Model the fold of this input.
Amino acid sequence: MKPESKLLRLLDNGEFVVTAELGPPKSCDAELVEKKAEILKNYVDAVNITDNQTAIVRLSSLASAVLVQQKGVEAVLQMTCRDRNRIAIQSDILGACALGINNILCITGDHQSFGNHSQAKNVFDLDSVQLIYTVKQMRDEQKFLSGEEMKKAPAMFIGAAANPFAEPMDLRVIRLDKKVRAGAEFIQTQPVFDLEKFKLWMEKVRDRGLDEKTYIIAGVMPIRSVKMLKFMQAHVPGVAIPQVLVEEIENSPEPEKAGISFAVRMIEDLKKIKGVRGVHIMAVEWEKVIPEMVKKAGLLPRPS
Amino acid sequence: MIITQARPLEEITAIIKPYRKVAVLGCNTCAAVCYSGGEKEVGVLSGLLRLAQKKIGIELETFELCLERQCDDEFILTIKDKVDGVEAILSLACGGGVQKVAEKFPNLPVYPVLNTHFIGVNLEQGVWAEYCIGCGNCLLDLTGGICSLARCAKSLLNGPCGGSDKGKCEVNQENDCAWHLIYEKLNQTNRLELLEEIQPPRDWSSGRDGGPRKIKREDLSL
Done:
């Protein structure tokens, strides 16, 4: 069964897609999720809802995804392997589909030691490759992991993440290939700061023909301050911040504007790379700048 | 080997406060090899405990003993007469040994002196690392002899997470990324194709998730 996904339809039609990340709040404040959705509406094609990102407890990704869709914005449900075993994962996949969610991003999940409950027990019953395979089996074979059949299959458009920057690069490409073979139909990457390194990764991706088998959506992150840059450099694995970006932000009287301008140029450059089918904007707790970025990058109006 | 380490002394002195006569029981196998529960450690601990009790006005009598293994009945039974009259046994063994001794002396409280950490190996003098989680279903043939269940922070089966970078684990930069080690080993031995294979969801039931485990070998039963 084909997923009722606008994101899939646009990618199939050859549109250069725009997705964005939305982080739910550390409370049950539905209005906050809805406000963020309103900001992004008509500026992006789908919105990823993070799943207790960096192992910090937040409003659930599934509940937030439903809130976002009620505002008329298509959601991509992010699901990690950290907090659920295969019983809970399959149950949540069914639940998501029953509530009209048709895009899923399958990820391993940050280790709980980074978050605000570092004494928690982790799960990792499945890894992200196996999670992808699980969703595909449920959808295409109409079977649970146990082999038992189900009456109605969850029609999910299946995505996965990739980190093109962590080394060694060849190992990252092998891992991407596995994700694609397991059933990942779209890939959202870590934010690109180092364009040359990303181009090299894309070359390796194309060498394996992976760009023909999956839709690659490149990550972009607007930087607000030097402090944020330094944090990224220190805490996000493999992120290499080019000196030119550091200087641009440091020397600018308006660092936020400089950050947005760098991100917009990045989108324009990424668009030219063969095999890149869209951009995924991760504006951590700064979602309000996304409309301006999309506009400046010449990606408006968004197709319906 | 099972790697153990002494609990903080204050925890042990708090336990023995009510006692005047205790057996301090070492274990000559794993615990002795990792310098946590051999004869030497039994002697040192006994001295420290006597001193601690003296400070609160108690003349503590310690019976210093060491078994070849605390996880086997045949060795435990050899001390039956030697612990006559003691009020408690302090065991310097892994959790298995402590429990076995407790089973054999139902009328005595038996206390653990050590924390049991993992099945591991000695890396260098004074350094041990976890290498095995005792899952009951070995996968080392698929992973170049490096266990990702024990040595990857997320026990992944299909390669490194996005947090692995330049061979190091995101959780602790002092730790090597198990999948990086696997990649290097498979590369060196021309078996990289193993890394390309998708490993299906694992059957964890042979491990702790299947409930407490017991092995019964008919060929050895009397």
About this structure: The two ends of chain B are 28 Å apart (CA to CA). The interface with chain A takes residues 153-166, 170-171, 179-180, 183, 192, 195-196, 198-201, 204 of chain B (CB under 8 Å). Residues 2-117 of chain B form a domain with the Rossmann fold fold (CATH 3.40.50.2300).
